[in-house]
Amino acid sequence: MFRWAIIFAVIALIASLLGFGGVAGLSANLAYIFLAVAVILFIVAFVSRKM
What is the pLDDT of residue 30? Predict the structure, then answer.
């Protein structure tokens, strides 16, 4: 999941540099969603392993 977040963040940066605002915004939103899901899953896995 972290890899997908990084990929979409890089796509958003490149698209914004090239002037593709719609693609950049969509990629940034997807990167944020993937990052949030990955962090939540990481926390759940960490907490469940401790118990």
Answer: 95
Question: Cβ of 21: how many Cβ atoms within 10 Å?
Answer: 10
Other C-beta atoms closer than 10 Å to the C-beta of 49 total 7
Predicted TM-score of the model (pTM): 0.81
Averaged pLDDT for residues 21-40? 95
Residue 41 DSSP code: H
- Angle, vertex CA 43, rays to CA 12 and CA 41, nearest 5: 55
Going from the C-alpha of 32 to that of each of 20, 25, 44, the distances in angstroms are: 18, 11, 18
